[in-house]
């Protein structure tokens, strides 16, 4: 239909139904994008926290292994070798999640006790060979408060298969240390991730 000169055809806008459909589609797209972004952020956080847990456990294990490597060390090995009684620090004992050992120059020592206590690994010194794993001194925490240790085990490996030496830990030259822990976090997805690490010393 022809319009008279100077008269414009009225422009048509969107109908209410079209506007509602467009808004609904827009909201669906925005919701999907937001869900994707939040999922990526959550995944990145979990990955970072998992890496952090690995680093914390590895560092704790390194401190324990470093101190254990000094066990039975003496100031003068030659004189000690000539002693009838032998090395006064030769005894080492592992009892579940506790390890008792000694070396010359040990801080608060010469005896050291490594043990799991209330989710943390503690190192305690003693002037004499302690009868128990809790002699009652002042213990130093190894590791941070951000990680809860749920398991600590020391497994001795003997150097002899002939009884009675097979069960005598004075001849043990190797221990396997294993620790298990998880991060302390309000997010159950993060705190629910547990890691176990082992090292032979």
- Please tell me the overall pLDDT: 82
| Spatial gap, N to C terminus | 96 Å
Strand order of the main beta sheet, please? Answer: 1-2-3-4-5
User: Rounded to an integer, what's the Rg over CA atoms?
Assistant: 32 Å
Characterization of this structure:
The mean pLDDT is 82. A 5-stranded antiparallel sheet has the order 1-2-3-4-5. Strands 6-7-8 form a 3-stranded antiparallel sheet, with helices on one face. The longest helix is centred in the first third of the chain and has 53 residues, at 16-68. The protein has 3 helices and 8 strands; from the N terminus they run ααβββββββαβ. The protein starts with 15 loop residues before the first helix and ends with a strand. It is rod-shaped and about 125 Å long. Strand 1 (93-95) and strand 2 (98-102) form a beta hairpin. It has helices spanning 16-68, 77-82, 188-191; strands spanning 93-95, 98-102, 111-117, 120-126, 139-142, 147-157, 174-183, 194-200. With 201 residues, the chain is α+β, with helices and mostly antiparallel strands.
């Amino acid at each position: 239909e022809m319009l008279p000169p100077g008269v414009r055809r009225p422009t048509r806008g969107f109908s209410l139904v079209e506007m509602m459909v467009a808004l609904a589609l827009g909201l669906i797209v925005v919701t999907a994008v937001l869900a994707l972004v939040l999922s990526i952020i959550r995944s990145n956080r979990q990955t970072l926290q998992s890496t952090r847990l690995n680093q914390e456990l590895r560092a704790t294990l390194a401190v324990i292994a470093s101190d254990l490597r000094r066990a039975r060390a003496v100031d003068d090995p030659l004189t000690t070798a000539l002693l009838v009684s032998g090395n006064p620090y030769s005894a080492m004992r592992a009892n579940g999640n506790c390890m008792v050992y000694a070396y010359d120059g040990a801080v608060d020592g010469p005896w050291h006790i490594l043990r799991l206590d209330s989710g943390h690994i503690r190192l305690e010194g003693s002037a004499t060979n302690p009868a128990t794993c809790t002699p009652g001194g002042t213990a130093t925490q190894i590791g941070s408060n951000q990680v809860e240790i749920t398991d600590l085990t020391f497994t001795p490996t003997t150097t002899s298969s002939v009884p009675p030496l097979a069960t005598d830990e004075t001849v043990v030259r190797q221990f396997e240390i294993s620790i298990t822990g998880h991060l302390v976090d309000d997010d159950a997805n993060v705190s629910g991730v547990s890691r176990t690490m082992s090292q032979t010393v």
